[in-house]
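Task: encode each sequence below as structure tokens.

Item 1
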Amino acid sequence: MGRYDALIYVMQRAADKAARRLQRDFGEVENLQPSRKGPADFVTVADQRTQALLYEELMHARPDYGFIGEESEPDPRDINWIVDPIDGTTNFIHGIPHFCISIAVEDRGQIVAGLVHDPIKQEVFWASKGGGAFCNQRRLRVSSRSHLMDCVIATGCPFAGHGQTAPFLKSLNQIMGKVAGIRRFGSAALDLCYVAAGRYDGYFEDHLKSWDIAAGLLMVTEAGGLVTDFGGKDTMLDSGQIVAGNRAVHPFLQENV
């Protein structure tokens, strides 16, 4: 038994319950009534309902924890749940089947457990500090590709009211001519899980929130990869900057973002 097995179980049970409801909601996505939370940043009934369910389940199991979620004001304590009820909301409300539930546990500034549940593909990524990273029951390792021309890199593009286009295009121009391809799928949490699984070789993005990346960054490190901010430091949750990859690709990305 691992040190954080009980937390993984709590997160799994909460995410399973929320995922069943999201599957139903996604099947009736045309009936959802999205409202605007900001320019091109939508919040749906499903977002709010999913977070409420997760809050109830997680806080019932650990009432002494704080709660930091996308759809509510933060209530931080020494140990916190960090929750994104739907990472990839824009995909969700447009009927694109690429989104997930992301849950992490932060203990005094360190992410010690995380879980990312993709309800459409029925993949559950989970990791604990010192315990490795897994997809369902399969152990994850970052890719071993070291030649850039063989590597696929994921990112997130600036959009209306979010991010700056010029710096992003400069980084993209420096990277895309040297790699096999660039992907932008619209879920930071899944991007990081895919790096951990070796599907992507690296990932970079700016202007993220802690709930976008908290669980995913642990997946990458526990799968043998590197995760830093653009300057090579461990400020990702505060700065919103992230560079992730295997040990050959990470330095290249960091130099070019």
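Item 2
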Amino acid sequence: MIPIRDDAPKSTTPFINYFLIALNVLVFLFELSLGPRPRAGFVSQFGFTPYRVDAWFAGAVPASYALFPLISSMFLHGSPLHLIFNMWGLFIFGDNVEDRLGHFGYLIFYFVCGLIASITHFIFNLNSQVPSIGASGAIAGVMGAYFLLYPSARVLTWFGFFILWLPAWLVLGYWFVVQFLSGAATAITYSSETGGGIAVWAHVGGFVAGALFIKLLPTRKRYYSFEDY
């Protein structure tokens, strides 16, 4: 399922969402400007590597070397498609979550979900020396919040040979189940030290964090309903 757009109304301009998208694009363009070998070193330095956290616990490396990538890794992407899919998901679902949380609340929410996503990845990939990059953990948190805030919203979705309007709970629920099952299969098949590919446990952790925190954080009062549109 590939979402194309949604029909959930909003009453504010999502300045923070636009800022996050622009920042991710600018960082990726900077990555491309480095060339293959310098770019690999850049990703290695600023991507989140679980092994470095273990080394920090052992006193072998400073905290900044191990922990700063928890933030910096959210703005790195491995390919144009990686960036496009992430930013498209953020564009579709982030504006409505920002509308409900307010600009500052949404910014804090985004980073907290991203941090929890990386921590979840660390828990399931202890000693891994493969850098994890991408905004998908934080975006999964946004999707988790949207799942609870707008379950009856419709999402225009490309599904195989069809383009259908589907309820948000189905689109996002399907995505979460696929991530969870993929994570379970990966945990059985691969070693945590050498496993690479998609950090599906980060997606699971981010989604759950977003769903939980949206129930705890204050949201703006809505002055509209879906029936009005």
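Check on item 2: Residues 191-196, 223-229 have pLDDT under 50 and may be disordered. Residues 2-219 form a domain with the Rhomboid-like fold fold (CATH 1.20.1540.10).
End of task.
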